Amino acid sequence: MAETKLTAEKRTSFGKGAARSIRRASKIPAVVYGHGEAPLHITLPGHETLLALRASNALLDITVDGESHLTLPKDVQRDPIKGFIEHVDLLVVRRGEKVVVDVPVHVEGEAGPETVVQQELTTLSVEAEATHIPASLTVSVEGLEAGSQVAASDVQLPSGVTLAGDAEQLVVVVSAAATAAQVEAELEAAEAEAGIVREESDSEAGETPAEEKSESDES
């Protein structure tokens, strides 16, 4: 994964008020920590950081007062309503060092006819060198039939990357698509549980439609 270079400033003011002032200036409060070093409180450029953090496990090379810090985002706090970044925790890493991270899983391909593909896991925990973390992992379901399963151990990993989580975890399950009768039965069961009573149509109730009645009367 390519590194993103950012220039940050040391932060000397703390608290909610200081953080709000930083964000009003279109910047982001952050802290750099790890490898036994004292936490370094910094202010990151807002727009550049936002773009960099669109990628999962973005590798950030941050320069503070001429000193470089290679980091990975450990925690990105966002406003729950507006979505802007409120604060970032950055973990110091070393080149060649192996780290455990969660990598996004993408499903591609078309499974067999009359099947439904259920993705059970959207990320997989893997161990990789900090400078060689895969951007994503791909699982192909091309041609898979109903009853097929893809476990974590079945996912192809790039060279140098190993699985860190449970190898037996299911990532993808392919099942048979429900028939129209099954869908109708499930709908009726759900309606009954909710206390919903369907009104019968004239044809369902065995009644003769109004037009047919009038024609019959005329004859």
TrEMBL record:
<keyword id="KW-0699">rRNA-binding</keyword>
<feature type="domain" description="Large ribosomal subunit protein bL25 beta">
    <location>
        <begin position="98"/>
        <end position="177"/>
    </location>
</feature>
<feature type="region of interest" description="Disordered">
    <location>
        <begin position="190"/>
        <end position="219"/>
    </location>
</feature>
<dbReference type="InterPro" id="IPR001021">
    <property type="entry name" value="Ribosomal_bL25_long"/>
</dbReference>
<keyword id="KW-0694">RNA-binding</keyword>
<dbReference type="InterPro" id="IPR020930">
    <property type="entry name" value="Ribosomal_uL5_bac-type"/>
</dbReference>
<comment type="function">
    <text>This is one of the proteins that binds to the 5S RNA in the ribosome where it forms part of the central protuberance.</text>
</comment>
<dbReference type="Pfam" id="PF14693">
    <property type="entry name" value="Ribosomal_TL5_C"/>
</dbReference>
<comment type="subunit">
    <text>Part of the 50S ribosomal subunit; part of the 5S rRNA/L5/L18/L25 subcomplex. Contacts the 5S rRNA. Binds to the 5S rRNA independently of L5 and L18.</text>
</comment>
<protein>
    <recommendedName>
        <fullName>Large ribosomal subunit protein bL25</fullName>
    </recommendedName>
</protein>
<feature type="domain" description="Large ribosomal subunit protein bL25 L25">
    <location>
        <begin position="6"/>
        <end position="90"/>
    </location>
</feature>
<dbReference type="InterPro" id="IPR011035">
    <property type="entry name" value="Ribosomal_bL25/Gln-tRNA_synth"/>
</dbReference>
<dbReference type="InterPro" id="IPR020057">
    <property type="entry name" value="Ribosomal_bL25_b-dom"/>
</dbReference>
<dbReference type="Pfam" id="PF01386">
    <property type="entry name" value="Ribosomal_L25p"/>
</dbReference>
<dbReference type="InterPro" id="IPR037121">
    <property type="entry name" value="Ribosomal_bL25_C"/>
</dbReference>
<dbReference type="InterPro" id="IPR020056">
    <property type="entry name" value="Rbsml_bL25/Gln-tRNA_synth_N"/>
</dbReference>
<dbReference type="GO" id="GO:0005840">
    <property type="term" value="C:ribosome"/>
</dbReference>
<keyword id="KW-0687">Ribonucleoprotein</keyword>
<comment type="similarity">
    <text>Belongs to the bacterial ribosomal protein bL25 family. CTC subfamily.</text>
</comment>
<keyword id="KW-0689">Ribosomal protein</keyword>
<dbReference type="InterPro" id="IPR029751">
    <property type="entry name" value="Ribosomal_L25_dom"/>
</dbReference>
